[in-house]
Amino acid sequence: MQTSKALALLGLFAFLSACGRMDHFGKPPSFTETEGSAEQRAMYDPGLPLVSSPRRASQQASLWSGGQQSLLGDRRAIKRGDILTVVIEIDDEAEISNSTSRSRSGSEELGISQLFGLPQRVNPRLPEGASLENAVDINSSAESGGDGSVRRAEELTLRVAAAVTQVLPNGVLRIQGSQEVRVNFELRELLVQGFVRPEDISRQNEITYDKIASARISYGGRGQITDVQQPRYGQQALDMILPF
User: Fold this and answer.
1) Residue 220 pLDDT exceeds 70
2) 130: domain range?
């Protein structure tokens, strides 16, 4: 009975492990469905207008209106559902080197040559060469050293369109964007989200990644090549539980 349960659990684990790869079994990986995404919901429900209807109608009829659709209007993203371009240009390099050294030595000696005549009474009974003249003699030394270094270099240049999904009470915009490119049987995906200030958006409706608060940028992929490069789930599980 116990054996059958173990086999059933093992089979279930194997089935769940294979489900993630069944999507691109013998075919290219599927794109993520955009229907119902956060970007689409923001475009379907842009929120309340920033100005009243009569004023908005008069602005649209004027050649010099300041709306986003006018000739001289500000085309930068400002409300829920607007789209802006995120420019990701990461070129970081860091090098840290630490070295420590410590040493210590000590010596202590204790004698009881005149402790109420005890050594004189005990010494004759001790083996030849033994004496209580120097009862305790302790020497100690310790030495430790450490050396460590960290070197890291990262370079990434990308551009991705993101949509404003929420306008916070203080005017800060929450943005979220995704991009997927499929080449043969490998799909590369780029995800970005975070919070931006409207005044940090350039006149070209672009913002750099270093002006995004709580930025979350992910660049990866999935497909047959990624599956081969990743260790199997069983090996990952063993790496977590084995203490050696």
Assistant:
1) yes
2) 96-150
